[in-house]
């Protein structure tokens, strides 16, 4: 079986969620089966394993609907894409697409780093369900990264194709020294963007109720957004890092009281796994995906309720509670690993990449 993996969504520079998912899945798949990576920019190779690769047009190119004409020259048996938007017109190979989440149907503000025409198409695409159905049904099978998203896909009847959950995971940020003792300082960590649905305002307002705590906001931030958040809670102790290295991130998590997240929607929640793996408790909004990841180890508060968030943080002050949550978090994080995810994905790819699978595609 000749396997090709679409790596054109890998970021130049720092990974985002889909970029990290791609890089780790490719690395683990390659340990189990030979593969060729598709890239659209040579700089992407800096964030990918040293494997065979081919250069094709970019995923936001006008040529994307017909990218299969370029790919089929490689004569693959099956192609895996970590997104659902890979063009498929004229393909002669099996195709497995990925749908990570349905966030942008409720929160239609697109990522700010996309070109203006793509941002417009993004908004139009998410006004109705039929474009999503059309893309997914052009694949042979579909994967998603959580049971939460799989349930939403089924609820909205987004595809007739077989659907498999291939769970996301997280980088190992070092070896945790377990069991951990409760930090003496009140340090809260937030790792994520400042998109409206992330609910960062709730975190900031909760800090006004926690004068002995400080909130470290790690991601890159515009001066305007920084000023806006500062004005929301003038007395809150906010520390803006405007981007951190993996080493600095690991150090902050390893010494934090808790990781906090107030998002109203997510496809997964990689920072939760990263924190729990280091034995750091997580205090997060009560949404289905965070229940799926955090289980009984996490603490939950109603989305948009800073007072309830503050109460959950205070609950960690109870004798032995922080240590209990820390140990439970480390155990919960063991469920998520790239090795298991790659094994599950390879089963799907082998099913689609066989001669029988290709024959089934031609009959459709």
H and E string: EHEEHEEHHHEHEEHEHEHEHEHEHHHH
User: What count of helical segments does DSSP give?
Assistant: 15
Please give the order of strands in the largest beta sheet. Answer: 3-2-1-4-5-6-7
**What is the strand content?**
5-15%
Low-confidence stretches: none
User: Structural class of the secondary structure composition?
Assistant: alpha/beta
Percent in helix: 25-40%
Organism: Agromyces tardus
GO molecular function, one term: glycosyltransferase activity
Pfam families: Glyco_trans_1_4, Glyco_transf_4
Keywords: Glycosyltransferase, Transferase
What do these coordinates show?
With 364 residues, the protein is α/β, with parallel strands linked by helices. It folds into two domains: 3-169 and 337-363, Rossmann fold, CATH 3.40.50; 186-333, Rossmann fold. It is 38% helix and 14% strand. The chain contains 15 helices and 13 strands. The chain starts with a strand and ends with a helix. The mean pLDDT is 91. This is Glycosyltransferase family 1 protein.
Topology:
Blueprint: E1 3-6, H1 17-30, E2 35-39, E3 53-55, H2 68-71, E4 78-80, E5 94-98, H3 103-106, H4 116-125, H5 130-136, E6 141-144, H6 147-155, E7 163-165, E8 186-190, H7 200-208, E9 213-217, H8 223-232, E10 238-240, H9 246-254, E11 258-261, H10 270-277, E12 282-285, H11 288-294, E13 299-301, H12 306-315, H13 321-333, H14 338-353, H15 355-363
Parallel strand pairs: 1-2, 1-4, 2-3, 4-5, 5-6, 6-7, 8-9, 8-11, 9-10, 11-12, 12-13
Helix pairs in contact: 1-14, 7-12, 10-13
